[in-house]
Structures are given as C-alpha cells and as structure tokens.
Write a structure and sequence with these properties.
Length: 197
C-alpha cells in the first residue's frame, strides 16, 4: 500500500525496521490516516514546529518521500542540513515509529523526474491543494480554492519534494506490560538495540 509509486533506486538491503513498519501498516489497514506522519523541526527563530504530512513512497532502503508547498514556511525551515524527526502513529497495531534524519538535497534531472512522477500519481483532489493560494497568507474572500485539478494541469513551481534520509529509527510498541521499545542507528549498521520504554 505505501509503495504506490515505484522506488527509483535501492541503496542496499532493507534495514530490519522496514519489515516491521510494513507489517504495522498492513495491520493498520487502508485508512488514509495510515499514511499521516507528524514532522517536527525547528523554525529559523529556534522555536519548534509540528506538521502533519502524507507519506508518498520509499526512495531506496532508508529514504522516504513527502510533498509540500514551496511557498510554505516549512520549505525554508527544512533547507540545508537541518535535522528533523517524523512520528508515525499507528493506532490499530498500537505502535509508533520515530524516524530521525535529514532532508536530502535534490536537483537537476533526478528532481524533475521525481516531481513529475509524484504529480502524476496524485488524485485530482490531491493536486487541487497546489492550486490554492499560498499557505499562511491572509485569506482573501475571492481567492480560488479548486476542488480538483485534472491530469492535464501543469505541475506548479511550488510543488516540492521533501526526501528524508533516515539515520535513526525507534519503535515503541504500546501493548503489554511493560511496553517495548527498540532502536536502530544507521551509524552502527542498523543493529537492533532494546531500550527502556
């Protein structure tokens, strides 16, 4: 289900947490909420920000793709090498994955192809969000908020891909007593380590 768009490349074997995440997503079922992740980052002034984004697909073994509007504040806040963390809460399997990493810089043909692929994979109602006025700006009474944008709609310049390369993953299982928690770090070859919940 979450691998709807073919992954462009694989960068080695899957780390041990990927099958666990896939299994939890399968137990969660086909609800749209199964693809929602909370993104935590720091604004330029040092204050925290949390936003909900939609998981689109994996890009290789340890990077995932999210979409955003380049006109939004988060786009600028996530430029460069600022660290970020994602929290993927899955109520049915009663677990949460905490995913820490950095945005991967993209450019040129690789970025263009990925953007085109993601744009075409969106539903007409999904594309419509990028036809709305700039996020966070004052609301204008006559501003257009289209409900759909068809397949022939050109990809807007502010349609932006956030590709996040993960460096640390934690799984908290909210069942049993005590609850169980483990982590994996890219720096140690994704070796599993059990830690206190």
């Amino acid at each position: 289900m979450p691998d709807a768009i073919p992954t462009p490349t694989q960068d080695g074997p899957l780390p041990p947490w990927r099958p666990l995440l896939r299994g939890a997503l399968e137990r969660q079922g086909r609800s749209p909420q199964a693809r929602w992740l909370q993104l935590a980052s720091l604004a330029a002034d040092g204050t925290p920000r949390v936003r909900t984004l939609v998981f689109r697909c994996w890009s290789g073994a340890v990077a995932l793709d999210l979409l955003t509007d380049r006109r939004s504040a988060k786009s600028g806040e996530l430029s460069g090498k600022a660290p970020l963390e994602l929290c993927w809460v899955l109520p049915k399997p009663r677990c949460q994955f905490r995913l820490r990493g950095q945005r991967l810089p993209l450019g040129g043909e690789e970025e263009r192809q990925a953007l085109d692929r993601h744009w075409q994979a969106l539903t007409p109602t999904g594309r419509a969000l990028w036809g709305w006025p700039a996020p966070g700006e004052p609301l204008q009474a006559d501003a257009p908020f289209p409900r759909e944008l068809g397949e022939d709609a050109p990809r807007p310049e502010h349609f932006e891909l956030l590709r996040v390369r993960l460096q640390r993953v934690e799984l908290l299982e909210l069942t049993g007593h005590p609850q169980r928690r483990r982590r994996w770090l890219a720096d140690n070859g994704w070796q599993e380590e059990w830690i206190n919940p």
